[in-house]
Amino acid sequence: MSNVPITVAHGDGIGPEIMDATLHIIKEAGARIDIETIDIGEKVYLSGNSAGIAPESWDSLRRTKVFLKAPITTPQGGGFKSLNVTVRKTLGLYANIRPCVSYHPFIKTKHPVMDVVIVRENEEDTYAGIEYKQTDMVELCLKLISRPGCEKIVRYAFEYARMNNRKKVTAFMKDNIMKRTDGLFHEVFDEVAAEYPSIEADHWIVDIGAAKMADTPENFDVIVMQNLYGDILSDVAAQIAGSVGLAGSANIGENISMFEAIHGSAPRRAGQNLANPSGLFLGAVMMLVHIGQPDIAELAHNAWLRAVEDGVHTYDVFKEGVSKEKVGTKEFAQAVVDRLGQKPETLKAVAYEKPEVIAEADRKPIYTIREPQKKDLVGVDVFVHWWDGSFYGTADKLGAMVEKVNGDGLKLVMISNRGTKVYPNGMPDTFCVDHWRCRFMADEQGSIITHKQVIDLLSRFSAEGIDFIKTEHLYNFDGEAGYSLGQGQ
Ligand code: NAD
After folding, report:
1. Pocket residues for ligand 1 (CB within 6 Å)?
2. Taking burial as the number of CB atoms within 10 A of a residue's CB, which of 113, 288, 376, 468 is the most buried?
């Protein structure tokens, strides 16, 4: 069988040590790989490349399509972009998979029974990084959620569950508040779940869901989340399982995939043969399954479980009375190599199968392209920067000014401040900052308006000397409102 080319980056801090240890184990286990090495991280940043990766390194990633990456140090201070976010978004690595498993009684944990896989959306949400300072007081971050983005991640979660014999997929979202963005995620979750009747589908509002996950993780199996919730809760899940130092992760794209530890470069531990290579190693195990070498993944993973079970522990998980031998990075890797061919006796051994090859014709599309909907412009929100010296009781004054721009078939129906309706008939107790949303709809209820009416409206704002800073169009899609109401509207 021919070797599979992979791209490897040794990273910064403890990166080179844990990468050497990881490669030592998988090579001894018989991994059939050809390694192309690239430089990423601190050295590249400090050489003046603010992305942290040289242009020619992208060629290697595009060629091999498989990236085993050690953690890097992101230099402190402005100007440096997160390499992880750059790589994930540039290469379309839309699914971030983080298995969080406890190894009771060998590694201390509050949750002896925990085997949760977090599937985190990796490309959109507030991580699009589209942010603006809009007024003296207000910053804006756009939360972008797309239907194909939701379809890709939710389908990945169900396919992962199906292929890994998992029984349940739970979605966390906050659609009681974010009815459109999180509502879309929920809607797509329900649609995709219906295609997998043999897998239980469940959902929680993210706050109570997170509390339950931290309290009774044994009740969860696969959890799928948008980017921000998934970022936060996958660290929580890894930590309560035992240690963030033990979790690996896969970043899967349609064409290219990246495998890594979830922890960082731990610079204070670098160069001392102290670091635990397990997170990166478990990332490499996922890589082996991904490249069609489940036999090697299984051999290496079971040897690792046996070493953990035998109490051979690095300093971070070493516990007097539980652990048997405190070892360094290299010795730990060697202890795993010495156990190749053995299986754990108390912990559950792993078994991996070759990823199933589904014929092109039978493959479910990872997203669908829908017919464009009928889109009618029915109104416009004009955001205004205005301040009259007080946080309370000024809305009516602004209202009187804005009423003057009514006309040409458009009329002001409400002003809100940070989402809460304050005009007409606002409450004097509502705290108002210098950022106001003025909602205009057609004079005649339900009528369609034109771009020209919007442009003329803005001209009237300008003529009245009202500082408009942004507009949002209000559309009906197939007759249904595509915008939220103001709180209290
Ligand atoms: P970190 O995860 O590097 O380390 C936090 C602490 O956890 C360390 O001080 C150490 O005590 C412990 N630790 C982490 N991994 C360990 C291991 N394998 N073995 C033993 N102990 C371990 O987090 P940090 O200190 O916040 O970040 C350090 C640097 O890493 C920063 O520059 C940060 O930007 C970067 N970082 C990189 C990645 C990545 O490349 N994927 C991820 C997170 C942070």
Report:
1. 14, 18, 71-74, 84, 245, 260, 263-269, 275-276, 279, 316
2. 288
Map tokens 């392209």 to a residue.
Answer: 369
87 alpha carbon – ligand 1 mean position (Å): 19
- Which atom of ligand 1 is closest in space to residue 83's alpha carbon? 40
> Residue 301 in contact with residue 289, Cβ under 8 Å?
no
Q: What is the position in ligand 1's atom list of the atom closest to the CA of 267?
A: 28
Confidence of residue 367 (pLDDT cuts 50, 70, 90): confident
Centroid of ligand 1 to alpha carbon of 271 (angstroms): 14
Enter the pTM of the model. Answer: 0.93
- Looking from the CA of 214 toward its CB, the CA atoms found within 13 Å total 12
d(CA 219, CA 206): 15
Q: What angle, 0 to 180 degrees and rounded to 10, lies between the N-to-C axes of helices 15-28 and 294-309?
A: 110
Report CA Rg, the chain: 27
Distance CA 318, CA 116 (A): 23
245 Cα to the center of ligand 1, angstroms: 8
Which domains, from first to last, does the chain contain?
A: 1-91+242-356 (3.40.718.10), 110-239 (3.40.718.10), 375-481 (3.30.70.1570)
**Rounded to whole angstroms, how far apart are CA atoms 141 and 302?**
45
Which residue's CA is the nearest one to ligand 1's atom 31? Answer: 73
| Residue with CA closest to ligand 1 atom 23 | 264
Predicted pLDDT of residue 1: 72
pLDDT-derived band at 128 (thresholds 50, 70, 90) equals confident
CA distance to 17, 18, 187, 268, 413, per residue, from 273 (Å): 7, 9, 49, 12, 67
Q: Can you tell me the distance from the alpha carbon of 261 to that of 248, in angstroms, rounded to the nearest whole number?
A: 4
Is residue 334 very low, low, confident or very high in pLDDT (cuts 50, 70, 90)? very high
| Residues forming beta bridges with residue 326, ordered by sequence position | 313
Nearest alpha carbon, ligand 1 atom 44:
264
What backbone phi and psi angles, to 5 degrees, belong to 115?
A: -150, 80
Rounded (5°) CA angle 481-484-488: 125
In 236-304, the DSSP E strands lie at 248-252, 257-261
Q: Which residue puts its alpha carbon closest to atom 42 of ligand 1? A: 264
Question: In angstroms, what is the span from residue 41 Cα to ligand 1's centroid?
Answer: 14
SS3 (DSSP) at 97:
strand
Sign of CA dihedral 115, 102, 289, 121: positive
- Residues counted in the chain: 489
Side-chain-facing half-sphere of 363: CA atoms under 13 Å: 11
Residue nearest to atom 1 of ligand 1 (CA): 264
Q: How far apart are CA 387 and CA 377, in angstroms?
A: 30
